[in-house]
Design goal:
six-stranded antiparallel β-sheet, 202 residues, Aminopeptidase, alpha+beta, 11 strands
């Protein structure tokens, strides 16, 4: 697909990794989803598209679904070589065509920059929730008591299927974590912990 004068849109391929990594660090506009997976690990999954000119990538957009019913905007970057509104419009249309066959898929983004908000609102997105991030500095462990019949213990790898079930029961479908996502999160967690009652993860 030919774009503008000399730009071409195509799926990202493993050979793009180095160039995309550089663009992620030096482009004026970069959105990275708050994720357990590095954005470029999604290369090879669909939809993940780039705009390039003579082998030089200027823009990338990745929205692979995970879990299957939610496609987060996992990466959008623009180097400035093509106007951001135009590059977004081109790649967003390709993503919509890719995902449009399944009407159950919800496409969502956690927005941290005003420029991305403007692009999304112009593309028909609506604001659904506000996210508050809290940070606790210093201090020791909190002395938290549990009700009778509940026990706290370190999480193990073997617990993850049960944790995925609790996650699915506890949250709205937009916020579900797939088992694969939890398997990536587990080794990155500082203190992976579960609560049990009657031998079940709750």
């Amino acid at each position: 697909m030919t774009v503008a004068v000399d730009f071409k849109a195509r799926p990202a391929v493993p050979a793009d990794h180095r160039q995309l990594s550089t663009l992620m660090h030096f482009s004026p506009h970069v959105h990275r989803h708050l994720d357990w997976r590095y954005p470029l690990d999604w290369i090879g999954t669909s939809p993940f598209y780039v705009l390039e000119n003579n082998g030089q990538i200027s823009t990338a957009l990745a929205c692979p679904p995970d879990p299957p019913h939610v496609a987060w905007v996992r990466l959008f970057l623009n180097s400035g070589r093509i106007p951001i509104q135009e590059s977004w419009r081109i790649l967003w249309e390709m993503v919509r065509l890719d995902l449009g066959h399944d009407k159950r898929i919800l496409i969502a983004a956690i927005v941290l920059q005003d420029w991305l908000t403007e692009l999304l609102l112009a593309s028909g997105f609506t604001s659904r929730q506000s996210i508050v991030m809290l940070e606790r500095q210093g201090g020791g462990a909190l002395d938290v008591g549990l009700p009778r019949g509940f026990s706290l213990r370190p999480m193990r790898q073997i617990d993850l299927p049960a944790v995925a079930e609790v996650d699915a029961a506890a949250f709205d479908s937009l916020w579900h974590n797939s088992l694969q996502a939890l398997e990536l999160a587990y080794p990155q967690a500082v203190v992976p912990t579960i609560v049990e009652a009657a031998g079940k993860v709750v």
